[in-house]
## 1
Amino acid sequence: MDYIILCVIILYITIIANKIDLLQKRITHMNSNLIKIAKQIGVPKDPLDDELKIIMEKDGKIKAIKKCREVTGFGLKEAKDYVDNLK
């Protein structure tokens, strides 16, 4: 009986983790689309962009990604994509 409950709990946790992963991917995709739309309609740039460009020139891309993560709270992939799009 205990094994059945344990299996159900593990299955439930797996399903929840999968849904969270899908939501994170959707948010990342929506954020990417939002950035593209903002560029097209001419929304003023974030001052962070200029700061990250300066950091990239002085200290390199890795430092810029680290700064981006600190300021925005992005994960590694999101921060890397953000910095890559600044070029």
## 2
Amino acid sequence: MTYPAPEADAPVTVLDPGRRRPDDGDITLLDPGRSRPAVPEGLPPALHARFTVLRRLDRTGAEADVYLVQERASGAERVLKLYRGPGPEPAVRTFLANKQSRHVVTVTEAGTADDRGYEVMEHLAGGSLAELRHDDPARLGAEALTGLVRQLTDALTEVHANGIVHRDVKPANILVRRLAPLEVALIDFGISLHAPIDRSVTDASGTVRYMPPEYVSGQLVTTAFDWWSLGISVLELATGQPFLDGLDDVLIRVEITSGPVSTEAVVDPRLRLLCRGLLAQSLDDRWGAEQVTEWLDGGSPDVPTGYAAPAGAAEAEVEAEQPYPYADTEYRNRVLLAVAMTANWEHTAQLLFGDDPEPLRALNTWREQFPPDPEYTDAPGEPANVRLLRLLRSMAPMLPPIYRGVNVVRTTLPAIARGAFTNDGNLPAIVRDLWRFELLPLLATGRAGAGLTGGDGLDEVDRQWRLRRRQWHEAARGIEDPQVRTQLEGAGGARTRALALSLWATVADDNTRAEIRRARAEEARRFRLPWFSGLLERPDGMWLAYLVRDHAEERAEEQLAAARRRAWLNRNRRFREWSRRQNRPVALSWAVAGVFLMIALCAVLIGVSDAVAPASDSAVLNAWVATMFAGLAALTAEAVLAWEIGGRFHPRYSTLGAAFIALGRAARSVAGRGIAVAVLLGVLAVAAVLTAYQPMVTPLLGGLGIVSWAVPRFMRWRTDQEHERAEADRGAQELLAARAT
């Protein structure tokens, strides 16, 4: 037996916040009671004396370490699985020691070493079906998959006959014994249970995407668990895609308990029938060994058509004289039609409320055969999904509360709200619709169906939800920070997050509340923001703080950066003063460069004016003299300013630097760049015209501008210096306070 290794050259995909990377070796969750302390690497002495470790097999399972070893006595290669606890239940070990099926891994030895259970198994070097699906998908065609199902049916039949439920059937736990013809064996019985009768458990062990709905919602373990897992495995192998790819475990649980699994992506009709049978929501409808064997023999056992109506609902309905055709079936029963439409939600919404009004008109005509629902009104201005929900609830108000394919009940609302808060899939839109159109009371009439929960308590959830939103609005009025106030009020783009979090706060359990309270308290200690800490003292404060934590983190980082700058200013105040004085020559050079640029520009303009000759020779001569005096005055003012400011003169306070900064700011956008160029050209044109007729004015204006501009630049530098000194003093005080504590 061997285990799949990860692909070393596979590119790593960057995921959105709140999501995780699914793969073929999804992590198997451990029972809370099986958590363990760290264990030393390597084998216990008793096993080390008998086996040489060739390599550690890279597995993502959490309950054991798996090694490829060689027996010192015989040289044979084996797989050694060393559990971090006692290992499987005794009944499971007994079964593995006496199993008959070739399609269950052979365990040659099991025992305990240093209080850790272990198993020695055959080494199957062909890899897993997950690896085979990735490396050679063409090998897993319909015929090959049928053969795999036959082998796994043989394995599961023997497993179940011994009262064992595997609980972790998945492609990564099915190893290839032989490629031609393809032969496989089921491995990894680490979390298997002895359940000769239906058994409820309190743990959440298993791989979430392969768990059946009755286990997700109620931890019920029956042999039907493994048949569901087999159905998901066949679905993945047939489509080449992981089931519910990209969703985290919480959202997968919501999807599994929200209704039938879509099998439309399975191309082969026989395999699609198998998947529909194995993935029935109801335990009573789900295929087992008998139905799968019939299917393998070419039969077509019955499969459920979709959502199941509550017991007796359809039988109590009066049937219409004229049928209504829908999805290749004629319906005379409103409840059964509503069930079929609910199972095909997206298609039905598009059909009835799309561009063509005829399907809805035909349905309304057919519905006239039944007593009217006085509370139903169709609002064309509402979204198609909302209109469909109102229509279906009027036809069958007792159907399980399904909206857009999601079973909206108290047990799924926490995951729905959390997913909406983190912007997962269509959950934000669902939460917005629940709020805006007050859909929870409408869904509260739904009763439980096969594999689905009823809407008990949804009307009370809606009332508490709206009360909490009003309280949050009132809490926002006392917040000075406008961004925090906007988020708490749920205005603008923050609306969905505020709605989702307030719904989550309404339905969260005690464990979730405790975790969120602990996390926010830790953040309050880390952020050191008085307003954030103050939120935690309010009613619902931990949720309010959760809503604005991202903004608080940004503010905390800004404050931390400012504190670090203050500390740096305090540590380096002497160096900065020394640097200011030492860099005066550099500052003077920038002052000379700025004045030289002014003189050069004036010289060019006066030269052009002299060549064009609109001005007299005396006027041009006066302009040269004015240029000399203006340059001298500007140089004096600029040099004095540069000497006083020192090393920080350029670029913030110099003529050249300030001009370039202003132009750069104006040119940050395309429109701003065009305006900056136009202004610059306009100034040059005015200067050229003015110099042509009054050449002395231009150098005088230039010199006067630099001299007069020196005063505000000097005052700005003084203000900046005082601010830095104050910041440095504050940094020194903070350092003393930190040392005192």
## 3
Amino acid sequence: MRDNRINEIKQDYDAIAVPKNLEERVKQGISRAKEKAQKKFYQQPVFWAKFGSCAVAAMAALTLITNFNAPIAQAMEKIPFLGSIVRVVSYRTYEENNDNMNAKISVPEIEAKNTSGEKNSTASKELNDKIKQYTDKIMEQYRADVKATEGEGKEDVLTDYKVVTDNSRLFSIKIETSISAGSSDTFYKIYHLDKTTGKIISLDDIFQKGSGYCNVITKEIKRQMREQMAEDNQKMYSIDDTDMPENNWQGITKDANFYMNEQGSLTFLFDKYEAAPGYMGTPEFTIPQETIQNIINPEYFVGN
């Protein structure tokens, strides 16, 4: 139904005498509308609408592979020993296979220690619980999809993890999920543990209260987007579209995915389709320190 509507829109566009200088913008608008429709389709209740809220009985055998050997877990992720404060000590991989519907979800287990080397069970449990709750929802949504399609659908779900920040102050781990179901989608969730306090932090914590950091960062990212598009006509971001303003990226929110790179610079990671057409993948933007210097809590801006 959505594809038919999009084709009708395209036919309407084709029937209009379009001035030369607007022709390319019209084509881009149609392309973006198609991709947005696909994106919305995969966000319907059957396909990943907030992962669903209720657990669904398993439709196939569940394989649980557990590895409690830290060196092997780290080697498989191609990451070195993560230090004496916070590290990945094990992982579990949940697999389900239903003909053309498959899921493979890797769930890391984090261990936190205090400065004397004693385990910080509270910090470890809070972080591990949040990661487990998040990945459980992904598996629940996959099972809901299997049930809704009676196992006749085509869908591959892959969830993995990677440590993206490990400095003297922060430990940040990225959970990445890719879905292939006719089209494809990729989305992220990054968790941050403050090694000093043992608390899980958010974007709010690294900025001063009342600083209006979302507006400052949004302005800088849009500046970078415009600069990239001016330098390379193959790049396109969902901003400044006056013909289809509903497609425009609305800006950074306090729930945005971020991490500190090796130089201690704030970097934002976007889901596929979040701020650009699908062919742009999952863009990242690093914020220059001078842009936010007066509104940050500097103790969090530490390099690896």
## 4
Amino acid sequence: MAEDFRLSSAVQVFPCPNCNETINTSMQQCTFCSAPIDPAAAQQAAEKTAKISQACSDASYLKIMAGCALTFFISRFFPFLSLVGIVGFAFLEIAIPVMTIRWWLKYRSIKTDDPNFVQAKLSASYVGGGALLFLLFVLTGRVVIHAMGFEFHGQ
């Protein structure tokens, strides 16, 4: 009975090669332009569409994580929220670069002109660049503090 209620099914969606409207893989012809649909090509296009959708979703998660990192950083300065801010920010300080690298390794080979994917790629670039700048800022600060002779017992 559990097999009847899966979130993913054998039917997937893809853009019609003729009119670019979204149709599903179970169709023999497009309902919008009546173009015949090759089942093998439809399955391949549906898999590519699913991968593009997942890339956009993962890039959205990266943006959310970056926003949460800023929120955790600010909450470190409030008395009753400081521990939550410290722990959350420390986690995201590691998770954001790891997830950004994962995004690039997993989705860099996708070739498409889909505007949503272009935006997702841009978002992943901004989040990755921001994480890199932050890392450089922290490392530079620690080197300067060490060079000035201060002891550092940081987090």
